[in-house]
């Protein structure tokens, strides 16, 4: 069991380092805290506890993203010659990001944050606060400013996508983005051409939300991100078969809607399952980028929350919204915490209703309705879980494709290490084959931790025994000039142990042989 005081210490250190501008160290502590929560999550069965900790994880992930953004900004700023630097406020004051106070987090896995049955619906203030956190102030549209009006153009939507560089997540846990679509396997962030060829000509891309919950829709709409998730197939190491399947199941129906008719109709839903940290979320983001569609990134924790009667409405509204923005992909992470077997002990009436609503909605994703221009309103449900055996049987049937996302094999591990080390200098003595051999059983996330740890060893050596002031006065170039060497990897591997157990893998493989559908 993870000690919450240790977790709080890590979060505090992460924030202290961020405030002092030591972004690398800050990111390490944030990642460490998130890894602790992941570990905790893998031990929790109670959906409510899981939902609470998922919320904490989500908030910390957002904070990490902000620190990474600041770090990237600082690096970019450093690269501009002095004379050409624009007069801008110091980096630390640029973002209106506000850390969530530590005491807003649950104090232990079992301790209630609130009355678990009556969670407040998000308020506009909350939403604004989250928006500010992500540094996206003023970028989102409200229904009043025409975001829902007929005639909003795809080109317009894509333009918005091009505008924002950062990422932000939502108060509601729903995030949507319209990504630039590219050809299969093409390079990074593609230009905003269109799935149905309607981007450049400015035809209407999306209709108007016509449901009864305009407030809820507005709240969800506020969380429509103006940026692409920015992950491409190339950023995902290995998983060739999963990429092929996702391309066939999600991307191709969007490109060739006429072909995917009748018996060839697109799959209603796709489930990605496998051990934690194997790249399921990364794949979902890559699908969004490659599809160039509106991407709704929904955390189950949000949908599972028990605002009286709001949750089913939210599910309904989300799907209405996805249809209005079609073609869309709805990604539901940790779907097990929302859809564990119905009738399970402790199941709450409201969560039963949410599940039923989700089933109805997934059923309704029959892709028969059409846009004004006659193209079909394709909505695809993409779900991910580390506990596929906990999923309700009825939902399992509706997630027609069930794709196993395994631990990386040796080749994928090497690719993953290369991807992770893209931005740092690597010494010629680094033996990838040897590292891949010694990291058998590591997940992608574990390997990323190894790479991060190894890449920081040079700095650790340089600052060892120095005071804070001495460190601050050191030249950053001096700190970062040592390339990452094999000895750094050896040290990192000895510190970072694999997080996935053999028993867990066995259980996934068994479930795959029983229920997999690739
Ligand atoms: N195949 C991969 N290619 C590149 N990076 C990967 C891959 N798998 C995992 N990673 C790294 O691990 C991190 C976590 O991956 P991701 O969140 O996609 O895993 P997940 O399977 O969704 O985990 P969880 O089930 O815990 O949510 C990524 O940010 C990335 O750094």
From TrEMBL:
Q: What InterPro entries does this protein map onto? A: AAA+_ATPase (IPR003593), AAA_lid_3 (IPR041569), ATPase_AAA_core (IPR003959), ATPase_AAA_CS (IPR003960), KATNA1 (IPR028596), KATNA1_MIT (IPR048611), MT-severing_AAA_ATPase (IPR050304), P-loop_NTPase (IPR027417)
- The protein's predominant localisation is cytoplasm
The gene is KATNA1
Q: List the residue ranges of the region (Disordered).
A: 78-212
GO function terms (MF aspect): ATP binding; ATP hydrolysis activity; microtubule binding; microtubule severing ATPase activity
One Pfam family linked to the record: AAA
Is-annotated flag, keyword tRNA processing?
no
Query: Origin organism of this chain?
Result: Rhododendron simsii
Top enzyme class, one word, equals isomerase
* Annotated binding of ATP, by residue: 274-281
Annotated localization = Cytoplasm, Cytoskeleton
Q: Name one GO biological process term.
A: microtubule severing
Biased composition regions of type Low complexity, renumbered to the chain? 146-168
Q: Which UniProt keywords apply?
A: ATP-binding, Cytoplasm, Cytoskeleton, Isomerase, Microtubule, Nucleotide-binding
Enzyme Commission number(s)? 5.6.1.1
Q: Which GO terms describe its cellular component?
A: cytoplasm; microtubule
Q: Which family does it belong to?
A: Belongs to the AAA ATPase family. Katanin p60 subunit A1 subfamily.
**Keyword Protein biosynthesis appears in the UniProt entry:** no
| Protein name per its UniProtKB record | Katanin p60 ATPase-containing subunit A1
